[in-house]
Specification:
Elements: H1 11-18, H2 26-39, H3 43-47, H4 51-62, H5 67-84, H6 92-104, H7 109-125, H8 130-137
Helix pairs in contact: 1-2, 1-4, 2-5, 4-5, 4-6, 5-7, 6-7
């Protein structure tokens, strides 16, 4: 079956929750399936009803102590932003502080770069209301 033919509920939510996995092959399956589902045609319409559950799962992954899980979660947020676009803006309050935490305080340059790329993706795909919403939560946010 192709991803376009699948029902995303509960599969996409399970994949988002699986981003916190640290054991192979669970990490590969969850992260690959999540990306493939969100990249399929018609994904936006199927993902929108699940957005609150996806955001909660991604926030939990962003709070992990495992750097590989955090990196995967940051990528997953970027993928979700690209899929659902401006619909994610209303959920920024749940995600932004966790994303920014890895930009501002992490000692690992790779995570800092991933966090900055994620903030830029949220701004880029979030439409005109994204930047004001980001600045409302993160007043020091800037592109420089």
């Amino acid at each position: 079956m192709s991803p376009e033919e699948l029902c995303f509920d509960p599969l996409l939510v399970l994949c988002a929750e699986g981003i916190r996995e640290t054991l192979h092959p669970h990490t590969f399956v969850a992260r690959s399936a999540y990306a493939e589902l969100l990249g399929s045609s018609g994904a936006q319409g199927k993902a929108l009803p699940l957005l609150p559950l996806l955001v909660v799962a991604l926030r939990a992954a962003l709070g992990s102590a495992d750097a590989a899980v955090v990196a995967a979660a940051l990528l997953a947020v970027r993928q979700l932003a690209q899929c659902v676009g401006e619909h994610l803006v209303s959920h920024f309050a749940v995600l932004l502080v966790q994303v920014n935490r890895h930009d501002a305080s992490t000692k690992q340059q790779a995570l800092r770069d991933d966090a900055r790329a994620t903030l830029l993706a949220l701004e880029q795909f979030g439409g005109p209301q994204a930047l004001p919403a980001i600045k409302a939560r993160l007043p020091a946010y800037g592109r420089g």
